[in-house]
Backbone:
């Protein structure tokens, strides 16, 4: 994607002093974001490795644990995040073509999707807490499955740690999108400068992608 | 332009606030220098206390519980707050952009943020002292780290935050190397220090996140009782060791690779000769980084991992010796028939070669499974990794400080006292740690508060050596402070070295070079 060099009414951005041009700065920022995403993948990778190991060891327990989750709520959240990825991408597109109003609308929808996702997560969490489906040591659920598997609490350890870490990333992404909205209101982005949109967009897509893996592993594993 | 030459990064702005909000990589490097030196002083004081306790059989200046805490703090401070940020974040921050002919690192704000991560993490870790400290050792092994009743969580969270500092530095350096090289600065014209920092940064990016998740899980283990590492709840404590060493073994290369980079610079500059085997040294850094991801199991030969895994890890560990030896032979070949100047930086580089070789060869010994079963968790291991980490990395840091001091502060250090500091550190080091090889072979276990009377004589020698090292570093600190205040003015290039940082004034101006350098030759074109 090349950046128009002509004088624009949008985004009077001056690239930082140690870069040759705005395009140079854009390329470096994007590269740095990708490197950061690598670290995110590796961090979640540790959880996935732990999941695989214990799933291998206790497949029936994991199956039993997954029956406590409502796959419909999980599917709803999957759709919500996929829509948010689309609107995120659209907001970048509209910044590139200089349509600030549409950039804003799409950013607001993205933020709203994040909020819906967290609300659904909140409903799911409080339901689990209510039933005593806590992680490991605090597991107090008394149903028949609990007697069948000595360590059913471990399933919920993975459930809460994985979705909790993911949820904190959704929250971080929403904060960044709020920051983008503020800057868009100030008319700082346009065809010649949309680097922050692009970089936050990459982060947001990764957060979605991780959920795409979490959903089947936790909800559909049976 | 009159007066433009008096303006440099040090006097361009003044006041504490201008330092705490600076985006200049050189100033951030100095911030790191001050903080790393402070942490080193604290960690070093703990080391002196440990050796004082171990001077005699039986409790003397502390009890067993306090000993465990002092030992933990010594290890955690030295690893997470001194050696890991020591070369990349301090010397690397200062030198890397200049070596590339750039005005700054790719992301100056991220660079400043990484320093604040270090300081915040350190503050959280030290705060654990108000909750009875931590007594797990720097490795936080489960299940003990789950059950011990004290501030371990704070120490773990502190290390987690410091990890972000390391990750951000790594991201910054890789992006800088890829995107901010001066015109003509191809990869094969980069100084070897840059190659070493680049390999280190890759490790920081690929390994540190695994430590982050490990420490996060350990925190959850203690706070939420998730039981993934707790056998009572169906978890697996050995999994913690796998996760921990998957980071922490590459981490020892995060500690040593930049030191090798410094030594390459020192040996080339003070031999005044084109470095021998430039490409071999450069690629061996990358090679060490690559192999380092597949050797973590050698920390776990007695943990109950499968024998097949043990044999594989043993074999791959020995492979690390190949790229390492390539470096050592090339350094010696560079010295051969060079116009060698025995100034203090080179003395430290030669000290590095000597000590690191002993540390490396004993590492190969420990990679042999049969030998390791005997030496595991004895003082032999303690001596081995101090030869590598102190004899290697700290020697390189000291040599690097003396070498780049004129560039940083525009002044020269007192060469006589710099050499005295070298002699004290070098001799003291061997007196401290060589007896520990023998103690380990005699079976003295590491991390214990007390020992059998038969070990006392060698422990006394070791303690005396430790205090000699302490004296040596105090002299070094004096040399540095004196150099800053009273040192003779240095020209742009007091050593006659050829890398780009010596083409600009000392101290350098805010943007490093008044004219954008254009590179037309390699970094070591001496003769």
Residues:
């Amino acid at each position: 994607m090349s950046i128009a060099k002509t004088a624009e009414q949008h985004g009077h951005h001056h690239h930082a002093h140690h870069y040759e041009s705005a395009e140079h700065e854009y390329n470096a920022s994007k590269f740095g974001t990708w490197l950061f995403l690598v670290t995110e993948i590796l961090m979640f990778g540790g959880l996935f490795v732990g999941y695989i190991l214990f799933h291998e060891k206790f497949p029936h327990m994991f199956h039993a644990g997954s029956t406590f989750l409502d796959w419909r709520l999980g599917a709803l959240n999957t759709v919500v995040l996929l829509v948010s990825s689309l609107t995120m991408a659209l907001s970048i597109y509209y910044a590139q073509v200089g349509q600030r109003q549409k950039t804003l609308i799409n950013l607001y929808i993205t933020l709203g999707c994040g909020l819906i996702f967290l609300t659904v997560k909140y409903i799911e969490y409080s339901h689990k807490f209510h039933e005593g489906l806590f992680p490991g040591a605090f597991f107090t659920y008394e149903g028949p499955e609990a007697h069948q598997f000595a360590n059913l609490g471990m399933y919920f350890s993975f459930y809460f740690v994985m979705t909790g870490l993911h949820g904190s990333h959704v929250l971080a992404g929403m904060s960044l999108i709020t920051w983008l909205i503020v800057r868009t209101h100030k008319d700082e982005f346009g065809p010649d400068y949309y680097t922050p949109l692009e970089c936050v967009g990459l982060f947001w897509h990764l957060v979605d992608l991780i959920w795409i893996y979490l959903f089947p592993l936790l909800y559909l594993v049976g | 332009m009159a007066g433009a030459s008096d303006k440099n990064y040090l006097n361009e702005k003044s006041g504490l606030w201008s330092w705490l909000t600076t985006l200049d990589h050189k100033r951030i490097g100095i911030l790191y220098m001050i903080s790393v030196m402070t942490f080193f002083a604290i960690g070093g004081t703990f080391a002196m206390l440990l050796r004082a306790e171990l001077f005699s059989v039986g409790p003397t200046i502390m009890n067993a519980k306090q000993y465990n805490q002092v030992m933990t703090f010594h290890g955690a401070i030295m690893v997470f707050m001194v050696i890991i940020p020591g070369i990349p974040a301090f010397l690397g921050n200062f030198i890397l952009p200049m070596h590339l002919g750039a005005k700054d690192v790719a992301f100056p704000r991220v660079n400043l943020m990484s320093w604040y991560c270090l300081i915040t993490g350190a503050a959280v870790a030290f705060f654990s002292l108000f909750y009875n400290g931590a007594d797990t050792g720097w490795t936080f092994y489960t299940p003990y780290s789950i059950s011990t009743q004290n501030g371990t969580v704070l120490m773990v969270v502190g290390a987690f935050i410091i990890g972000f500092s390391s990750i951000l530095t790594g991201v910054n350096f890789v992006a800088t190397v890829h995107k901010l090289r001066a015109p003509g600065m191809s990869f094969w014209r980069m100084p070897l220090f840059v190659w070493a920092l680049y390999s280190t940064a890759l490790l920081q990016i690929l390994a540190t996140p695994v430590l982050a998740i490990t420490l996060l899980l350990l925190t959850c283990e203690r706070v939420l009782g998730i039981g993934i590492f707790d056998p009572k709840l169906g978890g697996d404590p050995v999994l913690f060791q796998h996760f921990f060493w998957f980071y922490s073994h590459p981490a020892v290369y995060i500690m040593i690779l930049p030191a090798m980079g410094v030594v390459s610079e020192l040996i080339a500059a003070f031999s005044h000769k084109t470095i021998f085997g430039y490409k071999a040294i450069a690629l061996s850094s990358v090679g060490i980084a690559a192999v380092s991801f597949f050797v973590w199991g050698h920390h776990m030969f007695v943990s109950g991992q499968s024998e097949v895994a043990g044999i594989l890890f043993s074999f791959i560990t020995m492979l690390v010796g190949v790229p390492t030896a390539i470096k050592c032979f090339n350094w010696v070949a560079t010295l051969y028939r060079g116009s060698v100047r025995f100034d203090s930086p080179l003395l430290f580089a030669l000290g590095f070669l000597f000590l690191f070789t002993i540390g490396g060869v004993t590492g190969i010994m420990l990679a042999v499974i049969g030998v390791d079963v005997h030496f595991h968790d004895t003082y032999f291991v303690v001596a081995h990794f101090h030869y590598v980490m102190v004899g290697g990395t700290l020697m390189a840091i000291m040599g690097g400080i003396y070498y780049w001091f004129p560039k940083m502060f525009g002044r020269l250090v007192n060469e006589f006292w710099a050499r005295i500091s070298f002699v004290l550190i070098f001799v003291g080091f061997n007196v401290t740690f060589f007896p520990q090889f023998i103690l380990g072979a005699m079976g003295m276990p590491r991390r214990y508060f007390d020992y059998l009377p038969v070990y006392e004589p060698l422990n006394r020698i070791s303690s005396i050596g430790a205090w000699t090292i302490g004296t040596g570093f105090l002299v070094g600190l004096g040399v540095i402070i004196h150099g800053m205040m009273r040192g003779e003015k240095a020209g742009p290039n007091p050593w006659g070295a050829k890398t780009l940082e010596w083409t600009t004034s000392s101290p350098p101006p805010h943007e490093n070079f008044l004219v954008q350098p254009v590179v037309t030759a390699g970094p070591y074109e001496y003769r």
